[in-house]
Structures are given as structure tokens and as C-alpha cells.
Amino acid sequence: MRxxxxxxxxxxxxxxxxAIESALAIDWPDREVIVVDDASTDDSRSVIxxxxxxxxxxxxxxxxxxxxxxxxxxxxxxxxxxxxxxDDLLEPEVMQEIAKVWRPRVSKVQFRMNLIDAAxxxxxxxxxxxxxxxxxxxxxxxxxxxxxxxTPPGSGNAYSRDFVRDVFALAESTIPQSDAVLLTLAPILGxxxxxxxxxxxxxxxxxxxxxxxxxxxxxxxxxxxQDVDRAHLLTTVCQRLGLSVQGDHLRRSLNHLQxxxxxxxxxxxxxxxxxxxxRDSFAASWRQQSDPRRCRYGTVLSxxxxxxxxxxxxxxxxxx
Length: 320
Fold this sequence. Notes:
nine-stranded mixed sheet, alpha/beta, Spore Coat Polysaccharide Biosynthesis Protein SpsA, Chain A
């Protein structure tokens, strides 16, 4: 099996060199590394060009992550594709571990990621906490009900080439993040398999897409809009495939609800959802998902809305 590692970079000159080095260090005989720079305005180009002869580098006009990844994929030839974020790292044994579990009908193999800081120092923890056993069919059923499943972000996934080709043909222009498109459709277009060993490193820093030095309402709202776009994409593709998606699945997703709460509590006046019956969403999610951390979160939420605050509870639920 041939491995393609595709790195899309935009203004990550401080990190992209380390990402490329980690891809080149993968212990696998048949691999290629493709770097697509999305019109960076910093010194990224000189960093990338220092790897001339070792990677295939392309410098393109500004688009977005999806556009850069689509272009990189068109240049690639691998049977398995990893879209490595320019600020993340891969472990040398990543492909050896993937090859052990790979099988027909797989859409992606996902794995845990160690957390590192901006300087690359280990923070002493890894994520996500996967369910104890692989069951792609159960994952698919639950996903169609809640639109949520335990998944790492982009760099923590290795995709089938056929799956990526099909997804990019279905991708909607309203979603600029290829990670969102790929993660949304992986459970319904193939089997999702899990490796519980950390095989990548996720860098935590303020400039990252999901990074926050403090609570930022605009990032919560961006995530909510992405959830809406992903739900629309999922519904559209399920209809084409003849799969049943019942009702408003976002209202059954505890993962979505936590961002709704955060958005409302940080900046109520700009919150995009009104009178969406979040109490029903929470109750359905509580029944469907048994992750202990989610249970603790729900317990805290329930206690904070105790009987003595019933009137305020009704007001908050009506508002989010």
C-alpha cells in the first residue's frame, strides 16, 4: 500500500517545517509527501523550499483548506491518504499500525493524538477517549441518530483513496474545511476503525483554527454554523443513498449542544439559535450517549439548573 501525506499550509512558517520532517520520518517504504501552500504571506515558502527534492511542493493562489486539499489529492497516488495539518506531527510508526488493521470497505482509520504546546513540548495527555470496542455498524446507527461520534480532528485520520475521491465529488462549496466534509461522511460511506495508540501530535496554540486563549464567542458561532452545514450535507448524501435520517438530528447531539450553550452564555445577543428546545436535545443526547465525561458534564448542568432556579431555567432553555 502506498501512503500519501498531504500538508496544506497557510502562514504556519513556525510549524510547517516540523510537520514536513515528521511526514518524511514515517517508517514506511512506499510513501510520498505533498505540500500545498495556500498563498501564505509569511516566510512559509522558504521553509517549504528547503525540502526541495524530498517533497512535492506547490504554491497556489488563496482558496481554503478544502481547495488546497483537493488540489493536493489530485497530485497524489497513494492508496491511503493522511491530511496532516501544518501545525501537527505524525509518529514514525503511524503507517505500520494502520496497515495492521486495514481491510476492504474501510473509509478511515482513526487514532489518538498526544497534545503538545506551541514549542512542541508534550502536555502529558492524549485524546480522544474512544469507546472500548470497534463496532462500525453500531457507530453508523448511532451517528445517523445524533450526527455525533468520537473522532479526532483531521491529522488523526487515515483515509481510503476511494473514499476521499467520492467525498470530494460530493463536497459542498459552503463548507471550506475538508476535515468537516471527510469526518461527516466517513461513517456512512464505509467502516470507521480505531487505533487507541497515539500516532500523531496535536499542537495547541492560539493561532490554530480551534485554539482559544480565552472564551471567544465568534469561534463558537463559527462551529455552530459548521454543524448546520455538516448536517445539511449529511442529510443530502443520506437521501441519495436511501438512508433514513429522522427529524432534526442536531437537536439530539450533545456535542452540538455544548457549543450552543457556550455561544449563548458568552454572547447572548449574537447567539444564532432562538427557541430551539435545547432541553429536548439534552434529554435525547443523555439517553443516547454514555461517555462518562459527558455524564459528568450533564450532572453539572443539571445541578446548575436546580429546582430553586426553575424560572430562570425555562428562560434559558427558551433562549438557546
